[in-house]
Amino acid sequence: MPEENCIFCRIANGEIPSAKVYEDENVMAFLDLAPVHAGHTLIVPKKHIKDALAFPAELASAVAAAVQKVARALVAATGAQGFNVLQNNGLAAGQTVFHIHWHIIPRFEGDGLEMWRQGSYLDASAMQEMAKKISLAVQK
Ligand SMILES: [Zn+2]
Question: pTM score, two decimals?
Answer without folding.
Answer: 0.92
